[in-house]
Specification:
159 residues; 4 strands; alpha+beta; Glutaredoxin; 40% helix; Arc Repressor Mutant, subunit A; four-stranded mixed beta sheet; 7 helices; 2 domains
Length: 159
């Protein structure tokens, strides 16, 4: 087995298990990136090179996959990623108030991470929950019908 410097052995095993379900290894590219990110919180250039090797892809081909999807982080992020929906529905229903409250509470702007490395705040185009706007996603948890006053209770759930 090849030794990898930035992808943990457990992650390599998970990626290799993906290959049993696809016709060729490159078809598991996006899922391999998700596995790397699960272990490392983001996909560094070195980790991307190693994942590309595992998936029998070129660095550039896998990088084009990584940069296409907004769920793959190519820069370090905090322990929890807050993706705030900035679609038209969320905008109309109070996005600006929620964003301002988050910026004030966290002391960061969009694209930034808190000093304690707890939260990264990112925009996302749509979370598909327009009937319950405004909304945001923290990690994999969807929060809907947001109000500025309700944000503290939501943020307290994350260590």
């Amino acid at each position: 087995m090849t030794e990898y410097n930035t992808i943990p052995e457990e992650a390599v095993k998970e990626i290799e298990a993906l290959f049993e379900h696809v016709p060729h290894k490159s078809a598991a590219g996006i899922d391999a990136l998700k596995v790397v990110q699960k272990y490392n919180r983001w996909v560094s250039d070195e980790a991307l090179k190693e994942a590309a090797d595992l998936c029998e892809m070129t660095y550039h081909d896998l990088d084009s996959v990584a940069t296409f999807y907004n769920i793959i982080y190519r820069q370090p992020v905090g322990r929890h990623v807050i993706s705030i929906c900035n679609s038209v529905s969320c905008w109309i229903m109070g996005y600006e108030d929620i964003l301002k409250a988050l910026k004030d509470k966290l002391g960061i702007d969009l694209g930034e991470t808190t000093g304690d490395n707890k939260f990264t705040l990112l925009p996302i185009q749509c979370l598909g929950t327009c009937d319950c706007a405004p909304a945001l996603l923290i990690d994999q948890d969807l929060h809907r019908d947001l109000t500025p006053d309700g944000l503290d209770k939501i943020l307290e759930q994350y260590e």
